[in-house]
């Protein structure tokens, strides 16, 4: 347990540093010159999505798109290792990935047929 | 291209594809294939044919999987002692697992009958789940007579997860099974046709708390992996036995995994989701969760604690003792104050989880056998009880306030009688299945030195008997025409109800009811359709038969548990 003491000390210092720099340092030393870009919501450097007037609500369509994105994002995670070791994994790997792809496409087909891909 | 393969083969030993005995996984594969097919039907078939196809497909798949499970249990391939490890040792097929899977499939079949019931109040599931409650879109869906038939693939996927959960022989497979069974349940909870907001609230609560407890479970897996260097249950047991136990990592891991599992069974510090979710979910889904999910979660918990942590029993037993005592006492005491039938049944389910935990703490073959029997028995009575809850209705949907159940026996004696039978079964009155099950569980706990547990168990049993008896009194010995708040002659009350109607008050009744029902606000007992009748009959028959001649099933459970789980 003794060997963990330095880690603990470092952790305390790190937390203290973070707390100090976020809460106090900026307020004490930083200049405050705001402009329109600074006050905008940051969204990957592109023009922020227009918000409905008076509300903070996004349309539910974003949620469907995001869900679809996650599904295919995770599909890629499984495809990369398989692609790299394609020959070592052989037919077993091939059919395993094929089965996976078929199942993902079935979910995709369901969303497509239910109009999840139509924006308007 | 050649250099790539050479580098790959140098870095790791050549890949050996695992030898998968698909025959032994067939029950799960059948359910999974049916679920996938059902999604395709949802996507491509016209709306009119979907529902009937889905009902047929899911009943067929669950029935076929049950048959295959029986074939496996009878096959000579299965060794007399122990079992077989499938798919590289990630799935175990042994006698306790087959017993649990058979019970899960049977109970799922009965639940599916209840889910498919459409004669009672135009179905239990939402017309347009995505529509805002009370919106025009929702009204259109209801007018068109729609009902989400996605319910059936979701139930099939949940059943798949539940089949895998108690069979999983390593912690990662178990986690995947946990997620596969939980995700569809989160969705199903939000699909109630009536009281949409309550249903959606239940779904969100269940999802957030469920995700939270899954994180605990996952964190526990990480701890255990750090300790044992493996997620395989037998490897964890070996590592723990070699070290003699007591290590911080291992104890932390056990505690965190226990949190994840105790949440699913609804034991007391982690029971708060149960009443809310059971109340908000569509009642057939509540029946499904209260019976099948409990069987599956207990199956997984028994396997983890008997196989992986069996050598550490002295370390975790105090924890399970405390949880079991808390579960029995808090569940029973809080249930006494409930006035909502669904919430009351939810708290009763909490208490019963406590009773089964006393047998789990025994870590013996006797305890395992008693738990298996208890789970089967409790499942049937629970589905029957919730089936009756769907039938007592007012204009809002189900009439779940206890005072609305007043005088039920006079209006539909048979229904009240079967509900009383289920309640007596829950209370553990002799000649019902609940008595035998409770006896077996407490006997196992006593044999393992759990006398304090049994004392608390018997005491809280007495408390539960009180509130079960209270419902029986409400149904049989108070008339609907004599509300306790304002005693008066039946005629006077009936007259005042007429006056209310004349004054333009509430009058949505579609057919004339006898004068006796006037006092209660439009509560009526719907005539059960064929499917509900079957569900109630099966539940009542199981409660009675397993109470009068329990021996065959009790023997089956004892034999299945004789050699414990395969390692």
TrEMBL record, chain A:
<keyword id="KW-0812">Transmembrane</keyword>
<comment type="similarity">
    <text>Belongs to the complex I subunit 3 family.</text>
</comment>
<dbReference type="InterPro" id="IPR000440">
    <property type="entry name" value="NADH_UbQ/plastoQ_OxRdtase_su3"/>
</dbReference>
<dbReference type="Pfam" id="PF00507">
    <property type="entry name" value="Oxidored_q4"/>
</dbReference>
<feature type="transmembrane region" description="Helical">
    <location>
        <begin position="62"/>
        <end position="83"/>
    </location>
</feature>
<comment type="subunit">
    <text>NDH-1 is composed of 14 different subunits. Subunits NuoA, H, J, K, L, M, N constitute the membrane sector of the complex.</text>
</comment>
<dbReference type="GO" id="GO:0005886">
    <property type="term" value="C:plasma membrane"/>
</dbReference>
<keyword id="KW-0813">Transport</keyword>
<dbReference type="GO" id="GO:0048038">
    <property type="term" value="F:quinone binding"/>
</dbReference>
<keyword id="KW-0472">Membrane</keyword>
<keyword id="KW-1278">Translocase</keyword>
<feature type="transmembrane region" description="Helical">
    <location>
        <begin position="89"/>
        <end position="110"/>
    </location>
</feature>
<dbReference type="InterPro" id="IPR023043">
    <property type="entry name" value="NAD(P)H_OxRDtase_bac/plastid"/>
</dbReference>
<comment type="function">
    <text>NDH-1 shuttles electrons from NADH, via FMN and iron-sulfur (Fe-S) centers, to quinones in the respiratory chain. The immediate electron acceptor for the enzyme in this species is believed to be a menaquinone. Couples the redox reaction to proton translocation (for every two electrons transferred, four hydrogen ions are translocated across the cytoplasmic membrane), and thus conserves the redox energy in a proton gradient.</text>
</comment>
<keyword id="KW-1003">Cell membrane</keyword>
<keyword id="KW-1133">Transmembrane helix</keyword>
<keyword id="KW-0874">Quinone</keyword>
<dbReference type="GO" id="GO:0050136">
    <property type="term" value="F:NADH dehydrogenase (quinone) (non-electrogenic) activity"/>
</dbReference>
<feature type="transmembrane region" description="Helical">
    <location>
        <begin position="6"/>
        <end position="29"/>
    </location>
</feature>
<dbReference type="InterPro" id="IPR038430">
    <property type="entry name" value="NDAH_ubi_oxred_su3_sf"/>
</dbReference>
<protein>
    <recommendedName>
        <fullName>NADH-quinone oxidoreductase subunit A</fullName>
        <ecNumber>7.1.1.-</ecNumber>
    </recommendedName>
</protein>
<dbReference type="GO" id="GO:0030964">
    <property type="term" value="C:NADH dehydrogenase complex"/>
</dbReference>
TrEMBL record, chain B:
<dbReference type="Pfam" id="PF00361">
    <property type="entry name" value="Proton_antipo_M"/>
</dbReference>
<comment type="function">
    <text>NDH-1 shuttles electrons from NADH, via FMN and iron-sulfur (Fe-S) centers, to quinones in the respiratory chain. The immediate electron acceptor for the enzyme in this species is believed to be a menaquinone. Couples the redox reaction to proton translocation (for every two electrons transferred, four hydrogen ions are translocated across the cytoplasmic membrane), and thus conserves the redox energy in a proton gradient.</text>
</comment>
<feature type="transmembrane region" description="Helical">
    <location>
        <begin position="344"/>
        <end position="365"/>
    </location>
</feature>
<dbReference type="GO" id="GO:0042773">
    <property type="term" value="P:ATP synthesis coupled electron transport"/>
</dbReference>
<dbReference type="GO" id="GO:0008137">
    <property type="term" value="F:NADH dehydrogenase (ubiquinone) activity"/>
</dbReference>
<feature type="transmembrane region" description="Helical">
    <location>
        <begin position="413"/>
        <end position="432"/>
    </location>
</feature>
<keyword id="KW-0472">Membrane</keyword>
<keyword id="KW-1278">Translocase</keyword>
<feature type="transmembrane region" description="Helical">
    <location>
        <begin position="151"/>
        <end position="168"/>
    </location>
</feature>
<comment type="similarity">
    <text>Belongs to the complex I subunit 2 family.</text>
</comment>
<feature type="transmembrane region" description="Helical">
    <location>
        <begin position="24"/>
        <end position="45"/>
    </location>
</feature>
<feature type="transmembrane region" description="Helical">
    <location>
        <begin position="444"/>
        <end position="469"/>
    </location>
</feature>
<feature type="transmembrane region" description="Helical">
    <location>
        <begin position="371"/>
        <end position="392"/>
    </location>
</feature>
<feature type="transmembrane region" description="Helical">
    <location>
        <begin position="285"/>
        <end position="306"/>
    </location>
</feature>
<dbReference type="GO" id="GO:0012505">
    <property type="term" value="C:endomembrane system"/>
</dbReference>
<feature type="transmembrane region" description="Helical">
    <location>
        <begin position="98"/>
        <end position="116"/>
    </location>
</feature>
<feature type="transmembrane region" description="Helical">
    <location>
        <begin position="204"/>
        <end position="228"/>
    </location>
</feature>
<keyword id="KW-0813">Transport</keyword>
<dbReference type="GO" id="GO:0050136">
    <property type="term" value="F:NADH dehydrogenase (quinone) (non-electrogenic) activity"/>
</dbReference>
<feature type="domain" description="NADH:quinone oxidoreductase/Mrp antiporter transmembrane">
    <location>
        <begin position="168"/>
        <end position="464"/>
    </location>
</feature>
<feature type="transmembrane region" description="Helical">
    <location>
        <begin position="248"/>
        <end position="273"/>
    </location>
</feature>
<feature type="transmembrane region" description="Helical">
    <location>
        <begin position="174"/>
        <end position="192"/>
    </location>
</feature>
């Amino acid at each position: 347990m003794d060997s963990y003491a330095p880690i603990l000390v470092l952790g305390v210092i790190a937390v203290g540093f973070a707390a100090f720099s976020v809460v106090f340092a900026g307020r004490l030393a930083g200049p405050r010159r705001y402009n329109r870009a600074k006050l905008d919501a940051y969204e990957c450097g592109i023009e922020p999505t227009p918000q409905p007037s008076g509300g903070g609500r996004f349309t539910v369509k974003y949620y469907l798109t995001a869900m679809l994105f996650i599904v295919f994002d995770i599909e890629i995670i499984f495809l990369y290792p398989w692609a790299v070791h394609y020959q070592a994994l052989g037919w077993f790997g091939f059919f395993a990935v094929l089965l996976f792809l078929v199942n993902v496409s079935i979910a995709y087909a369901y969303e497509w047929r239910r109009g999840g891909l139509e924006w308007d | 291209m050649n250099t790539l393969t050479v580098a790959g083969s140098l870095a790791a030993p050549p890949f050996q594809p695992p030898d998968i005995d698909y025959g032994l996984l067939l029950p799960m594969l059948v359910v999974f294939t049916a679920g996938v097919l059902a999604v395709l039907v949802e996507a491509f078939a016209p709306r009119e044919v979907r529902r009937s196809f889905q009902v047929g497909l899911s009943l067929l798949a669950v029935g076929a999987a049950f048959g295959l499970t029986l074939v496996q249990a009878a096959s000579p391939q299965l060794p007399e002692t122990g079992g077989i490890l499938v798919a590289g040792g990630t799935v175990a097929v042994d006698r306790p697992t087959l017993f649990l899977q058979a019970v899960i499939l049977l109970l799922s079949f009965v639940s599916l009958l209840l889910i498919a019931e459409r004669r009672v109040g135009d179905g239990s599931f939402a017309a347009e789940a995505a529509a805002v409650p009370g919106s025009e879109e929702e009204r259109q869906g209801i007018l068109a007579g729609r009902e989400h038939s996605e319910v059936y693939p979701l139930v099939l996927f949940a059943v798949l997860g539940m089949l895998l959960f108690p069979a999983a022989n390593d912690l990662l497979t178990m986690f995947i099974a946990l997620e596969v069974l939980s995700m569809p349940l989160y969705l199903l909870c939000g699909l109630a046709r009536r009281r949409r907001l309550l249903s959606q609230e239940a779904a969100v609560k269940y999802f957030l708390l469920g995700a939270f407890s899954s994180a605990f479970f996952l964190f526990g897996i990480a701890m255990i992996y750090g300790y044992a260097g493996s997620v395989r249950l037998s490897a964890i047991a070996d590592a723990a036995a070699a070290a003699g136990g007591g290590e911080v990592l291992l104890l932390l891991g056990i505690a965190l995994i226990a949190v994840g599992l105790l949440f699913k069974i609804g034991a007391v510090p982690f029971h708060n989701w149960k009443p809310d979710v059971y109340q908000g979910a569509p009642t057939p889904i509540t029946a499904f969760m209260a019976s099948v999910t409990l069987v599956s979660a207990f199956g997984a918990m028994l396997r983890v604690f008997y196989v992986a942590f069996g050598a550490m029993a002295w370390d975790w037993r105090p924890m399970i003792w405390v949880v079991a005592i808390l579960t029995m006492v808090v569940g029973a005491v809080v249930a006494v104050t409930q006035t909502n039938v669904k919430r009351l049944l939810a708290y009763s389910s909490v208490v019963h989880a406590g009773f089964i935990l006393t047998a789990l703490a025994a870590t013996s073959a006797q305890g395992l056998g008693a738990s298996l029997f208890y789970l089967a028995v409790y499942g049937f009575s629970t589905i029957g009880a919730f089936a009756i809850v769907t039938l007592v209705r007012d204009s809002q949907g189900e009439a779940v306030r206890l005072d609305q159940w007043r005088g039920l026996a006079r209006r539909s004696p048979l229904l009240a009688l079967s509900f009383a039978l289920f309640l007596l079964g829950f209370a553990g009155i002799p000649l019902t299945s609940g008595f035998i099950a409770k006896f077996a569980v407490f006997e196992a706990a006593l044999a393992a030195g759990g006398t304090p547990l049994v004392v608390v168990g018997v005491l809280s049993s007495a408390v539960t008997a009180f509130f079960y008896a209270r419902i029986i009194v409400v149904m049989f010995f108070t008339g609907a025409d004599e509300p306790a708040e304002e005693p008066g002659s039946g005629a006077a009350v009936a007259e005042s109800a007429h006056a209310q109607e004349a004054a333009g008050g509430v009058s949505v009744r579609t057919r004339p009811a006898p004068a006796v029902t006037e006092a209660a606000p439009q509560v009526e007992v719907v005539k059960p359709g064929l499917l509900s009748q079957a569900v109630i009959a099966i539940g009542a028959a199981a409660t009675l038969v397993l109470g009068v001649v329990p021996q065959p099933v009790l023997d089956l459970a004892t034999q299945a548990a004789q050699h414990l789980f395969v390692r």
